[in-house]
Design goal:
By secondary structure, this protein is an alpha+beta fold. It is 59% helix and 13% strand.
């Protein structure tokens, strides 16, 4: 590969040498020089050229090797690069380092701006929670007939404020994740309590079977994931039913013994929590894209309530804590979201 590259680089010199040999042959023939003499001259020239070609190829191969080593150790300094062999290579090298310095300065500026934006939005979210809490207390003590509507509106405001903060945190490469043993039922109960008024106002029944799982995960982000999925189910369900239950893992029989049997088996399987609703469902063509950034689909455009950010953030957070999803839906019959938890992180109680 290197030899072919060097031949292409030296093709002009090779052509010139071939022309010189041809000229020697023609001149020797026209001058009636003895054949053995000009053949001897051409052989000497060929040997000399092969020596110079080999020396040049050796230098070229060493230079390529140094460049490849420098490429593996980016960002690099000029000490790791081979010496330029001419003015053109010196200029190329200068262009590369000036461009690198420019990119580094732009990246540093972007990092500072991102950090400033993160600090600003974090401060804004924490500050906006104070008036939200105050309004919640006022609504709680109010006897206004629209009290329920005001309460649900405040929950939405708080949810969107938290979503802005979570978005900034997930975009930040320095986001810390705190893994500990998490009681999944406790997390689910907190989310249900948060959205209890939506169940009441929308006349939605809840069928919740405690899953009895403890997992190694980040409790805050797990709650965010379940919250977003349940919020979506509530948004597109009315006068219906939402069920939360543990799907039998690996096809095992139900109950503790069946789950423990599966846990002792193939550790590539997963324990699966299902959030199922009887809402309006999702169109088949929209289903593969529901976790894409900014995608609202037919339902979101029709109801004008979707931002296309919630499930995207949910999916991003899930990847960080090793959780995956499956979605099943049929228009008019509801949606089933499966949350897969790796067995190696799961304990059933």
């Amino acid at each position: 590969m290197i030899l072919i590259s060097y031949i292409k680089k030296e093709k002009t010199n090779i052509v010139c040498f071939a022309l010189m040999i041809l000229i020697f042959a023609v001149v020797g023939h026209l001058g009636e020089v003895r054949t053995d003499i000009y053949i001897y001259e051409m052989v000497l020239c060929l040997i000399a050229y092969v020596v110079f070609f080999s020396a040049g190829f050796r230098r070229y191969r060493l230079k390529v090797r140094k460049l490849r080593e420098a490429l593996k150790t980016l960002p690099y300094s000029d000490e790791r690069l081979p010496e330029p062999s001419g003015l053109d290579e010196e200029l190329y090298l200068k262009i590369v380092f000036e461009a690198f310095d420019l990119v580094r300065d732009v990246a540093a500026k972007a990092d500072r701006q991102r950090e400033e934006a993160h600090d600003y939005y974090s401060m804004w979210v924490h500050q906006i929670k104070t008036p939200i809490t105050a309004l919640s207390l006022l609504v709680q003590a109010s006897s206004d007939p629209h009290k329920g509507t005001m309460k649900t509106g405040l929950i939405h405001i708080e949810e969107y404020a938290n979503m802005a903060l979570q978005y900034m945190r997930l975009e930040d490469v320095n986001t810390d994740f705190s893994f500990s043993t998490v009681d999944v039922d406790k997390v689910i109960n907190e989310v249900i309590k948060k959205y209890s008024i939506f169940f009441i106002r929308r006349h939605i029944s809840l069928d919740y079977e405690p899953v009895g799982l403890r997992i190694k995960s980040d409790e805050k982000w797990l709650e965010f994931i379940i919250s977003q999925i349940l919020s979506n189910s509530l948004k597109y369900t009315e006068n219906g039913r939402i069920a939360i239950y543990l799907e039998n893992p690996g096809g095992a029989s139900g109950g503790k013994s069946g789950i423990n049997k599966a846990l002792e088996g193939d550790d590539t399987d997963k324990a699966t929590i299902v959030i199922e609703d009887s809402g309006i469902g999702i169109r088949k063509e929209d289903l593969p894209r529901i976790f894409e950034r900014g995608f609202t689909g037919f339902n979101g455009r029709a109801k004008k309530q979707a931002t296309g950010i919630g499930l995207y953030l949910c999916n991003m957070a899930a990847k960080k804590i090793n959780i995956t999803f499956d979605a099943e839906s049929e228009p008019g019959r509801g949606t089933r979201i499966k949350i897969h938890l790796p067995y190696k992180n799961v304990r059933y109680e």
